[in-house]
Amino acid sequence: MTAQTPPTPPFRDPQLPIAKRIDDLLSRLTLDEKTAFLHQFTPAVERLGIAAFRTGQEALHGVAWMGPATVFPQAVGLGATWNTDLVRRVGDAVSKEVRAMRARDDRVGLNVWSPTVNLLRHPLWGRNEEGYSEDPKLTSAIATAYTHGLRGDHPTYWRTAPVLKHWLAHNNETDRSTSSSSVRPRVLHEYDLRAFRETVEAGAVAGVMPAYNLVNGRPNHVSPYLREQLRAWTDEDLLVCSDASAPSNLVDSEHYFDTHEEATAASLLAGVDSFTDHGTDSSQMIERIKGAYEQGLLSEADIDMAVRRQLSVRFRLGEFDGYDEPGAYDTPRHRALAQEAAEQAIVLLRNDGVLPLAPDIRLAVVGLLADECKLDWYSGTLIHRSTPLEGLYERFGAERVEFAEGVDRVLLKTSTGAFVHVPAADADDEVRGAEGALDPALLAGRTDLPPLTTDATGTELALVDWGEDLLTLRAPDGRYLSVAEDGYVRAAADQPGGWVVQETFRLEPHENGHLLRHVGTGRHVSVAADGVKVADENAEISEPPEIFELIVVERGADAVARVAAEADVVLVVAGNDPHLNGRETEDRTTLALPAHQERLLRAARTANPNTVLTLVSAYPYAVDTGSLRAALWTAHAGQAAGTALARVLAGDVSPAGRLPQTWYADDADLPDLLDYDVIGGRQTYLYFEGTPLFPFGHGLSYASFAYADLNSRAGEAALHVSFTVTNTGDVTADEVAQLYTRAADPSVPRPRRALAAHRRVTLTPGETVTLEFEVPLSELEFWDVAQGRARLEPGPYELLVGASSEDIRLRTTVVLDGEPGGPRPVTERGLDGADFDEQSGAEIVDRTKTAGDAVTPAPGRTAELLYRACDFGPGVTEVTVSVAGEGTVEVSLDGGATSVALSPKAPTSGPYDYVTLTAELTASGVHDVRLRLRGPLRLARVGFSG
Predict the structure, then answer these.
(1) CA atoms within 13 A of residue 920's CA, in its CB half-sphere
(2) Cβ atoms within 10 Å of 599's Cβ, excluding its own
(3) What residue stretches are annotated with the Fibronectin type III-like domain (predicted)?
(4) Which of 297, 460, 586, 715 is the most exposed place for a label (fewest CB within 10 A)?
């Protein structure tokens, strides 16, 4: 007899709908197998021929953490290009590199955790570099372009499956796993949700990742918005992947649940489908899921739903059809694209005519970033590297460029009179990477290199002051002093880096010298017979901290002044190291440029009035540029950063980057980092009423542009807007035309202006282009808290066209038919506590652990809540409040004296145990209602009846 071939199971049949294929595969999996699928590292099911799978591959601006890859500009730099076509091509290149790298390393995943669409609401946020813009429209446009590139262009299969980060209202690293963002409904719907929504609705998003923080008192990993908002935006199955260790945080740091079984069940029921916890060890999460199931907190159907969403992504990636797509990395096309992106990200902030530089110029290049090509936490390993200095050498010739880094060069003298000495690295000890660079992944943390010692002469060290008393120390051969696990100090890192940076120190005045504290361990440096090390505070016998005398051999400012005085133009390159003073886990404390870099800038400016500042940074600074000839900004622009900057300075490329966020003039202009009320706090360009240092959308050019012929027409569902832009300069250049809208006579606070559309165009001298835009009327809606939905208000709307949010060249007004508002029907709907029009001293918290909002006084405050135009109809005689805790609710009308005060007779048994209090209140017609909350009391609702 001839053996028969077993029939192909339906889940392997590409002709069937994905839903039916998933049904079939689910029916073949055991409960234990399905449970194991819920951890980030999903095991293989060999009996079904199913391979192992993992969620999560970082790809923010190139493939990260997996070795050599093309490194594109940071995300905020991609946002500064305002170029969706470019960003789509970057995403396309990154996804091809993911596929190529997976072919040689199965640790590389196809479920990419990117892009970050958190809005850059606050410029002191440590992760500013990861977002695109403070504006939801621009953010969603750039994110949509990137996800389309990551998804690829195959009609059926996805090249990679992008996951958006971080859901939701996440802009602080300070207490990030325990702090709660208080987000009123209007801010939630008009601002924070909008960037996610428009990107998801564009159709190339596979899922989202919840953030560590809480929103309105409830952890994002049990957010009801995952169900109520996210999953309502698309018919696709979206995969929700937890952030690393966040499932455990629900119990361990947030104390939101008493047991991990409760927390796991609540997360899965809220919509989390893949748990990222305990690294590659899935056993603890599996035990928690099993425990929740055995306790009746989860059903098998609940587990099936989460597995279904994960399988949906795997089917779309072509895994079960044997689909693969050949990829490539470090191709000539990708190298050219990295340079193009770096060029387009450069923003010219100020220029009095000194730029572009003359070809025969004598140039001084100075500053801590002048000969650096910095990476960040989410970068890949550089294959190519171009610093500003190298780019300028290449473009102008090394004979025309003088360099001074501007670091202080010091000796460290011990209390015995000896000096700290750095042993030379043998040739065999130096592990070299691409183009001869020391490979930081191989050198940092090494214990086989000799530790520092002392001798009679010592080694001159470069002391690099990064501000806020944080410094690095570097040996003459470029190696940074670092501390390994054994506690010894070695010259063993190419750059500061790592999750815990081991290359940073602080000098602390002590007696007649300084103690040197290692920041990574928090311990002081000591000197022993076997070498320099950090004190072991747990040892019975430990060397005492050394008291060092700091001997300055040369001050950086003196070297800068010397080379600046001899040049025609001096270029100061300042900024940040993305691993220091503002990064994941650490917010900045000020907008100010670090004091040492300010000294270098002053020294250059004093020595040479022809000073140009280039800021290379992950975030804005408040810098006085008024006395400078020119100023530019670029994010850390990846492997081609130096070449790109040199080409812009030389005029080979006209700069056309635009600021993706407001640059404020002073720290006093900023709200508190944890104030998420962009409306009440008048935050971002949308509401800020002060004078910025540089406005949102700002950026200059080497050409000039004229705007004309503004036309607009209102259709049933959209505004149709057109205008012309003409290059009136004498060089080919890009212009970024920006269209803003403004409600001219709003009934509630609305944005001063809001970006509605933009386009980056290339124009030759004298060329004119007509730009046409279609703006959906829905984008002019606001969230009406009186009705609990979006509403287009009728009346006049201004259309503003120009080169930035403040550089408006054309304007017109259109009158739109919308839906008239009216007073709140409080006898029918009552008042939800969080649906206030104005507040002071209040925080929004969770009404229950699963849904709803309540309002409570901020610690030490009395909360004042205002609800405008409440319609009591022919009359009411009674008011009721639903409250928990203890305290008092005072009710008044139209700002008058307190009419009613209601207090629970005794504190309720818990924050979610609400009681209803009733009192007499006589009113009719329309009135403003004011509530005052005193004490630790949660207000859920207010009702009125006759």
Answers:
(1) 1
(2) 17
(3) 735-805
(4) 715
d(CA 607, CA 562): 8
Which of 740, 736, 738 has its CA nearest to residue 762?
Answer: 736
Residue 425 has a pLDDT of 80
Q: How far apart are the first and last CA of the chain?
A: 88
What is the SS3 assignment for 726? strand
Whole-number pLDDT of residue 540: 59
Helix (H) or strand (E) holding 643: helix 641-650
Instruction: Check residue 442 and give its pLDDT.
Output: 44
pLDDT means per 10 residues in the chain (946 residues)?
76 97 98 98 97 97 96 98 98 98 94 98 98 98 98 97 98 97 98 98 98 98 98 97 98 98 98 98 98 98 98 98 92 98 98 97 98 96 97 97 98 97 73 40 72 97 96 96 95 94 96 95 94 80 88 98 98 97 96 98 98 98 96 98 98 98 98 97 98 98 98 97 98 98 97 98 98 98 96 98 98 97 94 97 98 97 98 96 98 94 95 97 97 97 95
Answer yes or no: are the C-beta atoms of 386 and 369 closer than 8 Å.
no
Of 107, 71, 108, nearest to 90 (Cα)? Answer: 71
Question: What's the angle, vertex CA 889, arms to CA 886 and CA 890, rounded to 5?
Answer: 150
Per the rule left: phi > 0, alpha: psi between -120 and 50, beta: everything else, 709 is left
With vertex at residue 847, the alpha carbon angle to CA 846 and CA 850, rounded to the nearest 5 degrees, is 75
Could you tell me if 228 and 252 are in contact, meaning their C-beta atoms sit under 8 angstroms apart? no
Tokens of residue 179, six digits: 């702090």
**Contact predicate 933/863, CB 8 Å:** yes
What is the residue-wise DSSP string for 376-395? -TT--B-SS---HHHHHHHH
Q: Is the peptide bond before 155 cis (omega within 30 degrees of 0)?
A: no
pLDDT at 539: 63
- What number of other Cβ atoms are within 10 A of residue 351's Cβ? 18
Q: CA 395 to CA 388: how far, in whole Å?
A: 10
Cβ atoms of 349 and 625 within 8 Å: the answer is: yes
CA 382, CA 130: separation in Å to the nearest integer?
A: 18
Token pair of 62, please?
């190139």
Q: How far apart are CA 214 and CA 915, in angstroms?
A: 25
Q: Which residues are catalytic?
A: 243
Q: Where are the alpha helices (DSSP H) in 41-135?
A: 75-81, 84-104
Q: What pLDDT does residue 431 have?
A: 44
Q: With contact defined as beta carbons under 8 Å apart, do 408 and 463 qualify?
A: yes
| Beta carbons of 852 and 828 less than 8 angstroms apart | no
Beta strands in 543-610 (DSSP E): 549-554, 569-575
DSSP state letters, 15-66: TS-HHHHHHHHHHHS-HHHHHHTTBSEEPPBGGGTBPPEEEEEE-SSS--SS
CB 311 within 8 A of CB 25: yes
Spatial distance between the Cα atoms of 708 and 650, rounded to a whole number of angstroms: 31
Give me the amino acid identity at 222: V
Half-sphere exposure of 550 (CA within 13 A, CB side): 19
Across 234-372, where does the E strand assignment appear? 239-240, 347-351, 363-366
Could you tell me the two tokens for 402? 């003088």
Chain Cα centroid distance, residue 822? 39
**Measured distance CA(111)–CA(114) in Å, rounded:** 9
Are 910 and 938 a contacting pair, CB within 8 Å? no
Angle between helices 641-650 and 388-396 (to 10 degrees): 50
Maximum CA extent, the chain: 98
Q: How many CB atoms lie within 10 A of CB 252?
A: 12
Q: What is the dihedral of CA 823, 825, 827, 830, to 10 degrees?
A: -100
